[in-house]
Amino acid sequence: MEKIKKNSLIRLSKSCIGNEEKNAVLQVLDREYLGMGNDVLKFENQLTSFFNREALCVVNGTAALHLALQACGVGPGDEVLVPSLTYVASFQAISATGAKPVACDVSIDTFTIDIKDLKQRITNKSKVIMPVHFSGGVGDLDEVYSIAKENNLRVVEDAAHAFGTIYNGTKIGSKGDIVCFSFDGIKNITSGEGGAIVTSDKEVLNKVKDARLLGVKNDTQKRYKGSRSWAFEVDEQGWRYHMSNIMAAIGIEQLKKFTSIASSRKHLAKLYDSCLKNSSKIYTLKHDYNCVLPHIYVIRVIGLRNREKLREMLLLRGVETGIHYQPNHYLNFYKIEGSNLFNTNQISHELISLPLHPEITDKEIKYICNCLLESLEKSADSIF
Q1: Is residue 5 included in any domain, yes or no?
Q2: Which of 160, 234, 269, 351 can bridge 61 by disulfide, Cβ–Cβ 3.0-4.6 Å?
């Protein structure tokens, strides 16, 4: 197999932008109106067309989750059900409202919220289910909504990984209660930082419009026009969570490239699957990449005991890897002693994320897989 150029690093992830994004930012700088204005409105309108229902932009995906929960009336004394195997942002958004994140187990097949475990953790304090669309897959989302309906719960989907994923023939975000996206630098599309809330609930939308601008009532329309409220009223807690024109300008250009970005990510994930399918040591998520748009490519190395050793071996050969994620119930702030999250505890130390972004080549994917398979074979005694 042809080797990758010596001393080069195949990055785990990266921001893939071009002159279009750079020129769009320069135009915003030239106009000298950098905050929330008409560019944000334009980006929101394009996202609204993309999802066929209203989208509101905010500063990041964590803010989107926080505002969505707050708009649902979540607060102290409430509980939000969320898988432990997610980035800490999901948990922080919940605890920021004063509510308690209730860590749930994940399915050993999909790494998304485990339905049986979810049902067992519902109490009279439960207010919201927050399914996390791990790696772009959504698991049994229909069952999540069925459980929510039975128990009179809201659903706030953490779709940070799933922009562009199709479920039951429909884009994630086009249906459902409230769906939150992230547009940070390495997501399926980026606005540098940024996030969005998509819903048909007009009351939630109106609350978010004010809350993202420090709670100032009806300030959104003025911001779109390059103005702001000088004499105003505030009725509820708000946050400085609005998107800027700079972010929106990048997002607008990225959305134009979405078809190409999506095609590249899907192709690379399929190639990974093909290269790794014959290894008995590696479990790959059984996604249909004609529908799932992957943000990350995560494998489970079954029986792995020394993950850092394996990652070091790959790094020495120019392959950067990651870990998605350390479970939140392991963290001091959210620690659960004697946790019975069996699947999460079993698989979390066996997960490794391989490089995935639109600028990786087929040649590099094949090289990564070769390095991985050789490392598993030659160093089995030291890593298993």
Answers
A1: no
A2: 160
